[in-house]
Amino acid sequence: MSSAAWDRVKAEAARLKAVHLRALIADGARCQALQRTAAGITLDLSREKLDAGAMEALLGLAEAQGLPAMRAALFSGAPINATEGRAVLHMALRGGATPPDGDDVEGTLSRMLAYAEDMRRGPMTDVINIGIGGSDLGPAMAARALRPDCDGPRLHFVSNVDGAHLTDTIAGLDPARTALVVVSKTFTTQETMANAASARDWLEAQNGPAAHRQIAAVSTNIPACTDFGIDPARVFGFWDWVGGRYSLWSSVGLSLAIGIGALRFREMLAGAAAMDAHFREAPLAENLPVLLGLTGLWRRSALGMQARAVIPYDQRLERLPAYLQQLDMESNGKGVRSDGQPVATTGPILFGEPGTNAQHSFFQLLHQGTDPVPVEFLLAARPRETLGAHHAALMANCLAQGQALAAGRTQAEARQMMAEVGFAPAEIARLAPHRCFPGDRPSTTVLYETLDPRTLGAILALYEHRVFVEGAIWGINSFDQWGVELGKELARSLMPIMQGGAADGLDPATAGLVARLRELAP
Ligand code: F6P
Q1: Which among 324, 251, 271 has a CA at the least distance from the CA of 105?
Q2: Which residues are catalytic?
Q3: What is the pTM of this model?
Q4: What is the pLDDT of residues 342-401, one digit of tens each?
Q5: Residue 135 CA: which ligand 1 atom is closest?
Q6: How far is the CA of 219 from the centre of ligand 1 (A)?
Q7: Which atom of ligand 1 is nearest to the CA of 488?
């Protein structure tokens, strides 16, 4: 990273490490300056360990690293995914960028949506999406997020090669009224091919060869879909400039579109396009993806925090952490820069669960553990349904957690609280250390009116562009995923052994595991 700009960021971090968040959140003007709204999304950074000086240094780093030029290159369709020689233009799927000449984005989308509408008219009652990674997580997460909008056939998602996933999904489904959507960018992924073949066998066992009419496919590898026996009329393509984890907006969204219908699918695209326009045009200092990205980089590289927790106080976003794990960690979990040189720090470990559930499991560590973990809360102002005081309780919990993380509770406060409720002095001395909270733990809050298709689109595009911002400043390629290849290769070579072949040429550790498996299931 540019050394003068980076030195300034480090100096700001050293200064702010000595300032407790309790003091920072008491400054109203600072808090106001750290809240921004665009495309229906409010980003509140008031509980981050940031102030005007730190933000200025971070913006200086973004300029020094050439972020504006890299953003322009992204939107121009330049082959910024250099290790694969590809452009990165998923924004073009939603009207947020211009697609390459000759790629008929609108025609492909209309054809996919027309098929989805046709499916919504019946007679199928259930649709199983078969795919993994980006061919599963996006549609599965969005179908859950938009449950109130899902008024088509019931949607199911099968991803794991573990036969339990398909078995449990089809149990109780009628093979005469169940359609399959096989989604795979490459149409070679082991898990998806195995599940697709077994699901096709299940349909054929009931309906014979006519079952093929119940199968559609989404891929960039059209010949492989035809070889699998899928009629080209039910094959929906996309392009190599769409990364798997950025593909929800393409034909990969077919099963979601069957669930929510064409109009709502287009609303989701429009929400994402609004965030694209904001990211492309807004000055860095007012730009939500830039601010969110800089905050991530600040915590990870300047403050040394190794993880990030994403906690949606929105039950229907329960699969958002899993979706973001792929988006964020597959994109920015890299060890070398684009030029092949080692890089000091890159993407953090991302995990999460919906609030309030997470409060009753791992929040103990977030509040009192030895390693501060920054948190990102997501919260709607309005629920999709009215149910007593549930939403007020949800909002109260969300705001309280950020407050507790930031301000904490001192020993003196813990002692006073215990005295007020009648603890004896000896008990106070013994228990007070357990009842105080260090605080000074940062969190970001993302607010929106309500979780509808447009808002979901904007939230996802915000996170997509945040990944780009972080990766661009770290100088890594956020759009390849070579790190998943070695395990796939080794699994291919172990497959004959797992099917009973000679266990030759294995290292002793692997050979020992194979031997024990064979003892357990001779
Ligand atoms: O193994 C990782 C990966 O390549 C992801 O990037 C991708 O989303 C997933 O596998 C599924 O790939 P495909 O859509 O080609 O089946």
Answers
A1: 251
A2: 330, 360, 488
A3: 0.97
A4: 999 999 999 999 999 999 999 999 999 999 999 999 999 999 999 999 999 999 999 999
A5: 14
A6: 11
A7: 1
